[in-house]
Fold this sequence. Notes:
By secondary structure, this protein is an alpha/beta fold.
Amino acid sequence: MSLNWSPTGSSQPQTIAYFSMEIGLDAAMPTYSGGLGILAGDTLRAAADLGVSMVAMTLVHRKGYFRQHLDASGNQTESPYAWSPERVLEPVAQQVTVEIEGRPVRVRAWRATVTGAGGATVPAYFLDTSDPANSPFDRSITDMLYGGDQHTRLCQEAVLGIGGAMLLRAMGYTALQTYHMNEGHSSLLALALLEAAGVAPGSAPAAGVAAQVRAKCVFTTHTPIPAGHDRFPWALVRQVLGEARTRTLEATGASTEGVLNMTALGLFFSRFVNGVSQRHQDVAQAMFPDHHIAYVTNGVHGATWVAPAMQRVLDRHVPGWRRDNQALRTASRIPLEELVGAHGEAKQALLAEVQRRSGIAMDPNAIVLGFARRSTPYKRADLLFQDMDRLFRIAREEGPVQILYGGKAHPHDGGGKELIRKVHRAAEQAGANPRVVYLEEYDIALAKLLVSGVDIWLNTPQRPLEASGTSGMKAALNGVPNLSVLDGWWVEGHVEGVTGWAIGGPVAEDDGGAGDAASLYHKLEHAVLPAYYHHVTDFARMMRSSIAINGAYFNAHRMVTQYAGQAYRPAAQAEAAA
Ligand SMILES: *Cc1c(COP(=O)(O)O)cnc(C)c1O
């Protein structure tokens, strides 16, 4: 990826505007918190590879998400993660003014340019209110991702949805046909589009105007967790957006539950709505019975997530994989020794980083399991430690076990923070076998090392709360089999003993995780460790199948191609085809 603007890159006008509260493009730009932002970054990279005419809008988050500090007991504290967009991004000449609490707030932007494998580009704009003309509070609106209270969040969403739409117009993006809202944080975009279509301040949009806006918008919902859906009291909306805009929002009838529900607003004004896996489609359809919910299963960007040694192997044996990851279907041609050798290099790189950070020298000849993602209760990072005696026995009898953990808890997520402490307690109890290490500051750079360098990628979410999950896909593209609860993408990607192993059955049990823990121990003892330590060739075949079967499908090229076919066709075309 290049962060430099190359005005010669793209010749056709952008027709798709992608709005997301977080976009993760680079470890040096802390503008993401987890899967949602990483997915947005991978979407832009894949669009650039495929020459899809897209432009993206997000906030600059000058103080980042946060830096994570863990003490010896696993207590997490946070500090701001300041970065300087002026060092790596291009300034944009145009500025706009968004009215917030009656004050004119000046909004400018920085441009990153994502360049695809064939040279096409996708510009991404990072909105910034840190203008000296703004009040100290207004300057701080675009400082911290998910950092403030509800009031700050609503101000951020006004900058993203309203400011973003205004800036696109000011920059001359006049050919936009589709606005893609990646989650509800950008739903105020619908209000900006209503105003642009001539709805007078304070008045109700005529049915025809609402339909016009609906013909332009598509919406992706990403989580069944209620906290993932913003709800703002109308009094707060009045305070931040003013009486006229609030009256218009109320008059749309989009949000009927006594608050402004940003998901309801986005859904109401979208011609196409999707969940992010087949399983999540069912869950989202039950949550939003008034809307038809489609699904586009998430995918990851191969050239971003595959380790350098494995990239060289793919370049030799899978021509064309960079332009279209779906070519990985032919990965069964890769000689097993080359695949195993490349994985060994990735494992060495990971273990060297583990030693540098923790002082612990892990054994490259012993299995390493990886578990890294946002630390939050439904992800159940502690499932592996439900029965320590059993874990000790398995590690003693079947072969040494090493496990690497990583992940930040949101500063207000007490349950997520407690999980980090629990893993630390388990690590202390475990000692040298099983060896458990929790790595600080999980970010894009560490994720690249982990998903490629471990031998097994572990995931233990509480069904059906993992809408998709993407880190297991990154592992699959690196030839790392998954050991996972059947939720999210793994429902589609799991072939037992071929691409990995399932933990538990398809349906959640109400047993506090006891059944899933028992299944996890059973699979480790009778399938995973025997395969790794005693059936080396079978294990290598599973590594290769992970690439050929899952890498070929759970990639962002397939995902963006599906969005182009289902979601991005202009409304008239979509209706004609229906
Ligand atoms: C891929 C990724 C995630 C998402 O992981 P899930 O397992 O899908 O929750 C989160 N954080 C980082 C840094 C990632 O690279």
